[in-house]
Amino acid sequence: MSDHKSPLPVDSDGIPILTRLVSRQEMLRANDEPAPDNSPSNLSTAEIADDLLSSELFRKQLDEIASELSRGLRLQIEQALGIAIEDVISKALEHNHARSFELIREQLEDALPGMLAKAIQDRGIPA
Predict the structure, then answer these.
(1) Is residue 22 part of a domain?
(2) Does residue 15 contact residue 8 with C-beta atoms inside 8 Å?
(3) For the chain, how many structural domains are there in total?
């Protein structure tokens, strides 16, 4: 291999033209060569966190997780409140049923003579 770095020849569309075949041994040697060491084990915790937080994919995944957790929490709250509200209404109706019944009955008894008189008058029946 030559150390000479020259731009690759390209065709009219800007696609590089390969001019040299690479042997299998060269490919294996290239795979065995250590890559530049920027693996996570050599980065500090702060650098890893900065890389993650600046990643668009990571931010999108965080948004999806937050959205899913929010939906789940809302559903749990709605279910818990629904059960609690039904329970309170049921207890209130049971507790006040007798009193409510009496109040409604009294109002009907008071209003019934006037309602009957109006119904008779509307039908044109002489009183």
Answers:
(1) no
(2) no
(3) 1
Q: For 61-119, how does the pLDDT look when each residue is reduced to its tens digit (9 = 90+)? A: 989 999 999 999 999 999 988 888 888 888 877 777 778 888 888 998 999 888 888 88
Take residue 110 and report the two structure tokens written for it. Answer: 């008071």
What is the residue range of 69's domain?
Answer: 45-122
Contact indicator for 44, 36 with CB cutoff of 8 Å: no
Q: Would the pTM count as exceeding 0.70?
A: no
Largest Cα separation within the chain, whole Å, is 123
Q: Within a domain: residue 68?
A: yes
Helix, strand, coil percentages, rounded to 5, for the chain = 70, 0, 30
Other beta carbons within 10 Å of 43: 14
